[in-house]
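Run 2,5-diamino-6-(ribosylamino)-4(3H)-pyrimidinone 5'-phosphate reductase through structure prediction, thanks.
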Amino acid sequence: MDRPFTFINSAMSADGKISTKERKQVRISGDVDFDRMDELRATSDAIMVGIGTVLADDPSLTVKSEARRAARKNKGADENPVRIVIDSKGRTPLDADIFIKGEGKRVVAVSGSAPADKVEELQQKALVIRTGDDQVDLCALMKELNSMGIKRLMVEGGATLNWAMLSNGLVDEVYSFVGNLLIGGASAPTLVDGSGFAESDILSLELMSMEKMDEGVLLKWAVINTG
Ligand SMILES: NC(=O)C1=CN([C@@H]2O[C@H](COP(=O)(O)OP(=O)(O)OC[C@H]3O[C@@H](n4cnc5c(N)ncnc54)[C@H](OP(=O)(O)O)[C@@H]3O)[C@@H](O)[C@H]2O)C=CC1
Ligand SMILES: Nc1nc(O)c(N)c(N[C@@H]2O[C@H](COP(=O)(O)O)[C@@H](O)[C@H]2O)n1
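Sure, done. The structure for 2,5-diamino-6-(ribosylamino)-4(3H)-pyrimidinone 5'-phosphate reductase is below.
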């Protein structure tokens, strides 16, 4: 495989929403699930999010547990995995938490549509990788990440990036915490948005495990990529 092993980790409400119609971050996970997410971060080479998530949530994507950061250091790795933003037009704010918080490498993946001045500014903060004309070419990017030594990639959303990764056959597993709340709203983002599959292309999953966790359930799925 010339791309990293890739999994999506997400938290959704019982009605499949990952945030509100205003795209406002909601605490869906409980403490146990957040700790599980931290372990996933700590054991990944890189974490990827879309620019929509950076603009909505301003996440730091750091490993929160000091012990886990120390364990990474002991193995000769940076305290935090490489943090990657998928951002065709180079809109990532220079004061985003992803740049400010925690040590470690950052990558901003842009496309040919990113203005040169934005790229120059981002290069002060991150390695900038340019693929694709209008939007980031995710298949080409994944090959490049693989050649950089990124073998285990965690995708933390949002809904549009999840769709793009899944519909390009780039995801191996999906971990979804389903919380005990209903968010509703036709326009609220779901686990997978985008344009959606035609009936003949619907993606099949194989249930790997289900576990009661906090006040919800953790579902682990393997993606059956046929392409
Ligand atoms: N509950 C949870 O677990 C999580 C919830 N969220 C929520 O998700 C929401 C954000 O999701 P969403 O708005 O969908 O944004 P995303 O984070 O999915 O980012 C989508 C953006 O990525 C850029 N992009 C670049 N290249 C591509 C490509 N090839 N294919 C697709 N997109 C590409 C596009 O912007 P451009 O063209 O400008 O590059 C696109 O609009 C927020 O409300 C956040 O709170 C987010 C993460 C986890
Ligand atoms: N697993 C999970 N559960 C929830 O309830 C959530 N709201 C999220 N959101 C994701 O976590 C990111 C925050 O990361 P930092 O704490 O800033 O490091 C946020 O952007 C979403 O990706 N996840």
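The helical segments are 31-42, 51-57, 66-74, 97-100, 116-123, 138-147, 159-167.
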